[in-house]
């Protein structure tokens, strides 16, 4: 299947490259294809939320 995606703006260029490398790996070994979202209603958003040793919310 086709998976539309968006990579959040808070990732560095090298982090984005890792995402793309991982997606190519999945595409090579499965029947999944990743495509950057255009106007799809359903899509995946890769986001970054720092986790650490701070107090829970």
Outline the structure in words.
The chain is an alpha/beta fold and 57 residues long. The protein has one domain (2-46). It has 1 helix and 3 strands. It has a 3-stranded parallel β-sheet, with helices on one face. The mean pLDDT is 90. It comes from Mus musculus. InterPro entries: MetalloPept_cat_dom_sf (IPR024079), Peptidase_M12A (IPR001506). GO terms for molecular function: metalloendopeptidase activity.
Notable features of this structure?
3-stranded parallel sheet, 1 helix, globular, alpha/beta, 57 residues
Concise structural overview:
The protein has 57 residues and is α/β, with parallel strands linked by helices. It has one domain (2-46). The protein is built from 1 helix and 3 strands.
Distance between the termini: 37 Å
Structural class: alpha/beta
Oligomer: single chain
Give unreliable regions as ranges. Answer: none
Count of beta strands: 3
Task: Give the arrangement of secondary structure elements.
Blueprint: E1 2-7, H1 13-29, E2 33-36, E3 44-46
Parallel strand pairs: 1-2, 1-3
């Amino acid at each position: 299947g086709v998976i539309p995606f968006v990579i959040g703006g808070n990732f560095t260029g090298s982090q984005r490259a890792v995402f793309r490398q991982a997606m190519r790996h999945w595409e090579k070994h499965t029947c999944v294809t990743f495509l950057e979202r255009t106007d799809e209603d359903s899509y995946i958003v890769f986001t970054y939320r720092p986790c650490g040793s701070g107090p829970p919310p």
